Amino acid sequence: MLRLSTKGRYGTRAMLDLAINYGKGPILLKDIAKRQEISIGYLEQIIPGLKAAGLVNSLRGAKGGYTLADKPKNIKLKEIIHALEGPTSLVEDSNNNDYSEKIDLCVIRELWDGLSKIIDDYLGKISLSNLVEKYNNKQKSQPLMYNI
């Protein structure tokens, strides 16, 4: 089964939260954690990878927190996944010469590499602003709840 780790999934949710709140100033991790129902401890493990990749900025002090390093339309899902999960590859990279010597392994390797490229290309087409738009559309379609 192909599966994205919680690091990649939660990191994407944190980045979406920052994108939804883009332009509102720095966002505290505790606020992201609450809205996204992710432990603050786990977010503290995810954020350094996003920061190292240049996707988020941090500001210290009383008015500190985190912001996107660029506009949501300029940040692609591919960048987020690569920052947290590494390159999109369905099989481990191997410099093993067995692949070049065994034609059947070489053919299968080309299949997996091709599929990895399709996934990578797909993720490269989706920006955070695309996700914000989907989020906003879903919010509009939710029925209003009245509590008495």
TL;DR?
With 148 residues, this protein is mostly helical.
Could you describe the 3D structure shown?
Helices cover 58% and strands 5% of the residues. The protein contains seven helices and two strands. The protein has helices at 6-20, 29-36, 40-52, 77-85, 98-101, 103-125, 128-141; strands at residues 56-59, 65-68. The protein has a two-stranded antiparallel ribbon with strand order 1-2. The radius of gyration is 19 Å and the shape is globular. The model has no long low-confidence stretch (mean pLDDT 89).
Question: What are the SSEs and their pairings?
Answer:
Elements (H helix, E strand, L loop, with lengths): L5 H15 L8 H8 L3 H13 L3 E4 L5 E4 L8 H9 L12 H4 L1 H23 L2 H14 L7
Helix pairs in contact: 1-2, 1-3, 1-4, 1-7, 4-6
The CATH topology corresponds to Arc Repressor Mutant, subunit A
In CATH terms, the superfamily is: Winged helix-like DNA-binding domain superfamily/Winged helix DNA-binding domain
Number of strand segments: 2
Per DSSP, what share of the residues sits in E-state strands of 2 or more residues?
Answer: 5-15%
User: Which CATH architecture?
Assistant: Orthogonal Bundle
- Report the principal-axis shape: globular
Level-1 CATH class name: Mainly Alpha
Uncertain residue segments:
none
Please state the structural category: mainly alpha
Structural domain tally: 1
| Straight-line N-to-C gap | 46 Å
The helix content, as a percent range, equals 55-70%
Average predicted local confidence, pLDDT: 89
* Radius of gyration computed on alpha carbons: 19 Å
Biggest sheet layout: 2 strands, antiparallel
Order of helices and strands: HHHEEHHHH
Discrete helix count: 7
Strands of the largest sheet, in order across it? Answer: 1-2
